[in-house]
Specification:
Blueprint: E1 2-5, E2 19-20, E3 26-28, H1 36-44, E4 49-52, H2 77-102, H3 116-134, H4 137-149, H5 151-170, H6 175-187, H7 197-200, H8 208-215, H9 217-225, H10 233-241, H11 262-276, H12 288-297, H13 305-314, E5 323-326, E6 331-336, E7 346-351, E8 357-365, E9 374-377
Helix pairs in contact: 2-4, 3-6, 4-5, 5-6, 5-11, 5-13, 6-10, 9-10, 10-11, 11-12
Length: 378
């Protein structure tokens, strides 16, 4: 048996000793299989630790002996289950590994980087970084766990990893720093795997108790990542600190400014931007324009304004040839852009608000025509 924190308990754990209330009454008896609801109750009662039974290692059956897998008629249900589970695990690992290493070639990354000379360096470095990351058994296990927990969270983490990497490259990070940042960006939400399905996929407002439990995912994530030497400490801090805010209003420890690791600050900005521009379980996606305005407003409040400017200067929200809807109802195609104001490019207008094609397309420089903005990419 082993003693664990109540916050580390999982549904299905078996108690090795009874759990007593502060007044000495037995709350849960020895041998009890713990449920999610009981774990919540223990946390509410401020119970600190519990003793749980450890799984005994499976007995190894030697080949060519009675009961071995070679003797078909004597196979047990456990044998069949183990074969199925191992095969399923291999498929999961390959699927996740291929998804991660192939993400650079997806439409999510096409045209995302503003500077062409950086894009070449980025793709070259990140193919190597992603391959190195999925070659780590522990890290790949965590990515598979994230994939199984919530497909949206998994794909969101890939987007955060790529955009974080672009910012890291703009910060002139070396290969090792980019590797650490990317591990942190891929697994910053790994603590979500310890939460109930209800919390991860909630579509409505949370109670105060649910919000408190949700916030603990940052600590869970840090505990998971620091439990293995393959994960650098700086990468693990992304899990712990990605909800801290520049002005000290974040969680779990209300850190502020330089107390927050730079990797975690980058991941936080990329997390918020990608979250805003993606549909969630409980709302529609924000437009890119709305997300950009949010980031500008959050400068030196939620995030370091210098990092926000770096993000907006290097992440190309509206790449050249991207079709866009303007605030005046007209539709156009991005013709060119000023690298200092990527969100206000030159747009060639091709359609009227009613959809009628324009015989002689004309250009609007949104940097000069400040009364017109891009509403969304089409």
């Amino acid at each position: 048996m082993k003693e664990v924190s109540v916050w580390s308990l999982c549904s299905g754990d078996v108690l090795a000793k009874p759990i007593y209330s502060p007044t000495g009454n037995i709350l849960l008896g020895e041998g009890k299989i713990i449920t999610e609801q009981q774990i919540k109750r223990l946390k509410k009662l401020n119970i600190k630790t519990a003793y749980i039974k450890e799984l005994e290692p499976e007995k190894v059956v030697q080949p060519n002996t009675p009961g071995s897998l070679k003797h078909g008629p004597e196979r047990t249900y456990a044998d069949a289950e183990r074969i199925y589970t191992d095969t399923e695990q291999t498929i999961d690992h390959k699927l996740v590994s291929d998804t991660v290493t192939g993400f650079l070639d997806s439409h999510h990354v096409k045209g995302l980087i503003a500077f062409s000379h950086i894009e070449d360096t980025f793709r070259q470095s990140y193919r190597k970084i992603f391959r190195e990351i999925v070659s780590s058994p522990f890290i790949l296990d965590q990515l598979v766990a994230l994939y199984k927990k919530d497909l949206f969270v998994f794909h969101h983490s890939l987007k955060v990893a790529v955009t974080s990497g672009i910012v890291g490259l703009a910060q002139k990070y070396d290969y090792q720093q980019l590797l650490e940042l990317t591990i942190g960006a891929l697994l910053y939400d790994i603590g979500m795997t310890k939460l109930s399905e209800h919390l991860v996929k909630s579509t409505g407002p949370l109670t105060q108790w649910e919000r408190t439990e949700l916030e603990v995912h940052t600590i869970y994530g840090y505990q998971i990542l620091t439990s293995h030497r393959e994960v650098p400490k700086a990468a693990a801090l992304c899990a712990l600190q990605h909800h801290e805010r520049f002005d000290g209003t974040g969680y779990p420890y209300q850190l502020k400014e330089s107390q927050i690791h730079p990797y975690a600050q980058i991941v936080a900005i990329c997390d918020v931007y990608n979250a805003l521009t993606s549909p969630r379980h409980y709302r529609s996606a924000y437009t890119h324009h709305e997300a950009i305005e949010y980031l500008y407003a959050a400068g030196n409040k939620y995030f370091d304004v210098t990092l926000i400017k770096t993000f907006l200067k290097h992440i190309c929200v509206y790449p050249v040839e991207c079709k866009v809807l303007l605030s005046n109802g007209k539709i156009g195609v991005v013709a060119s852009m000023d690298l200092d104001t990527l969100h206000r490019p030159v747009v060639k207008v091709i359609r009227e608000p009613d959809g009628t094609p324009i015989d002689s397309p004309y250009e609007i420089d949104l940097k000069k025509n400040v009364d017109v903005v891009i509403v969304n990419a089409l």
